[in-house]
Design brief:
This protein is an alpha+beta fold and 141 residues long. It has 3 helices and 6 strands; from the N terminus they run E-E-E-E-H-E-E-H-H. The strands form 2 sheets. Strands 3-4-6-5 form a 4-stranded antiparallel β-sheet. Strand 5 and strand 6 form a beta hairpin. Helix 1 packs across helix 2. The N and C termini lie far apart (89 Å). The model has no long low-confidence stretch (mean pLDDT 86).
């Protein structure tokens, strides 16, 4: 029943490292509202796991920031009525969160200057617009 969580093509969190908790979800429900434990909490010890190399642990800790409590990230899912669908939602959310946390930083933007032609076109358009507005004014001779 417990499955590994695939983060990306290189990283899969083994089911043995995941901690699941189930409780009754709050809010509206149907006949089974007081009997089914459909709220799901999924926890994973990011910093204690041997899965990530040290540099990725540092990157994840920096990016996840205050979402980590003692190196553990915990996600809650209550949007579905069934426990199974909430488990899938929590696992998908964890995978997306970890994928974003360990991904390579984006390349720095290299500043460029506008081409000479684009500057000339912009100035010509400004002059054309100013002339249009000037033509709307009454003559004061």
């Amino acid at each position: 029943m417990l499955e590994d969580v695939r983060v990306n093509d290189r990283l899969t969190i083994p089911a043995a490292e995941l901690s699941w908790r189930f409780s009754r979800a709050s809010g509206p429900g149907g006949q089974g509202v007081n009997t089914t434990d459909s709220r799901v909490e999924l926890s994973w010890d990011v910093l204690g796991s041997g899965l990530l190399p040290p540099f990725l642990k540092e990157r994840a800790a920096e990016r996840l920031g205050n979402r980590l409590v003692n190196g553990v990230i915990t996600l809650t899912a209550t949007e579905h009525r069934s426990q199974l669908r909430n488990r899938e939602a929590a696992a998908a959310r964890l995978a997306a969160l970890i994928a974003g946390a360990v991904s390579a930083p984006p390349k720095a933007r290299r500043a460029t200057k506008p081409s000479r032609g684009s500057v000339e076109r912009r100035i010509a358009e400004k002059k054309r617009r100013a002339q249009t507005k000037r033509n709307r004014r009454p003559d004061h001779d």
